[in-house]
Amino acid sequence: MKKILLSSIISVCFSVIVNAQASVKWYNRGVRQAATENYEASIRSFSKAIQLDEYFYQAWFNRGLAYSKLGNYRQSIADYTKAIQFNLSFAKAYVNRGADRNELGDITGAIQDYTRALELDSNYIMAWFNRGSSKFQSGDWKGADADYSKVLQLDPSHSAARKAKDAVRLRMKDHAATSE
Q1: Domains, the chain, ranges and CATH?
Q2: Series of mean pLDDT values for 10-residue runs along the chain (180 residues)
Q3: Residue 179: enclosing H or E segment and its boundaries?
Q4: 0.85 surpassed by pTM
């Protein structure tokens, strides 16, 4: 009886290892395909990796990137959500999901995702910049100004943040002049 149980345990462990190795091979293939902008093929490869290891959060994330590159934001958001489900501290997945939510007009959801990414990594420049852009879109110019200021504090040479900050200041000045 002990031999049968031990044999079963070894068999299961071996199966898990083989699946993990195969999953990594499919994942690496997907990464190479995405690097050559062959997003449809990379989606198939990442899907195979996920089929072999449903907890492979990097495969979920990278498949989300590929869907995003193809403009399929609803599917990319679903994949980023799965990546987050398997790694709650994956700040990059929150930022990418926020960007795609913004693409679909869900500015509130985008700001929430950027904020969560910043809770995980307060020096994440892209999260500060993107949240500032979403706040600008929502009409929260003071919030946008503060976020762009943080970007410039972290990276004084960030030209896009400097331009965005100038645009916010101009908008605030115009708004103040028309409301007088």
Answers
A1: 1-88 (1.25.40.10), 110-180 (1.25.40.10)
A2: 48 46 90 97 97 95 98 98 97 98 98 98 98 96 96 97 91 71
A3: none
A4: yes
